[in-house]
Amino acid sequence: MKNLLTISLILCGLSANAQTKDCVDLAKENQYLRSALNIQKPILTAQAENIDFNLIKAEGNKSSDKITLQFVLTNKGADKEFQFAGASAIDVEGNEIKAGNINIGSSGIRGKLFSNTPVKTTIELKTTPTTLILKLINIEYYDPDAPGRTLNLKLKDVAVKWK
């Protein structure tokens, strides 16, 4: 009887210790997920053709004289192909800046948008570090439902953070 009681106490102690460790691991995972959500928090949002365009950051690189616009696109409809036709921006002085590179995920200007799945998208603009505000960002893309037809999405007054 004494042995049974001793074994029971040991097992209860191990079980309590395992639960504490699981709670610590769970707390670390929750912290990671919270920080991931903050990274993906949009500074500007627009929606067109059942696609959410969430601008995550507008960051300039002084050494390359480029502004990188980072978006997360989320397709709210059925899976579909998506293709950019081009993009440009106008700064506060009225200078138009054409996009150099546009990437949807690991693809180029064309990629697949899966239903309710966020895809990181970047647009690079070649400019000078004096550009602190983009008065207008014009994104042109092909209508997924009407091949050959282009649509425009406009975002206004975007601050650029230079590094």
Distance between the termini: 71 Å
Number of strands: 10
Structural class: alpha+beta
Kindly give the count of domains: 2
Structural overview:
The chain is of the alpha+beta class and 163 residues long. It has two domains: 1-39; 44-162, Immunoglobulins (Immunoglobulin-like, Sandwich). 23% of the residues lie in helices and 50% in strands. The protein has one helix at 2-39; strands at 44-48, 51-61, 66-75, 80-91, 96-104, 110-113, 118-126, 133-142, 150-159, 161-162. Strands 1, 2, 3, 4, 5, 6, 7, 8, 9 and 10 form a ten-stranded mixed β-sheet that branches. A hairpin with a 4-residue loop joins strand 4 and strand 5. The protein is elongated, with a radius of gyration of 24 Å. The mean pLDDT is 86.
Give a nutshell description of this structure.
With 163 residues, the chain is α+β, with helices and mostly antiparallel strands. It has one helix at 2-39; strands spanning 44-48, 51-61, 66-75, 80-91, 96-104, 110-113, 118-126, 133-142, 150-159, 161-162. Strands 1, 2, 3, 4, 5, 6, 7, 8, 9 and 10 form a ten-stranded mixed sheet that branches.
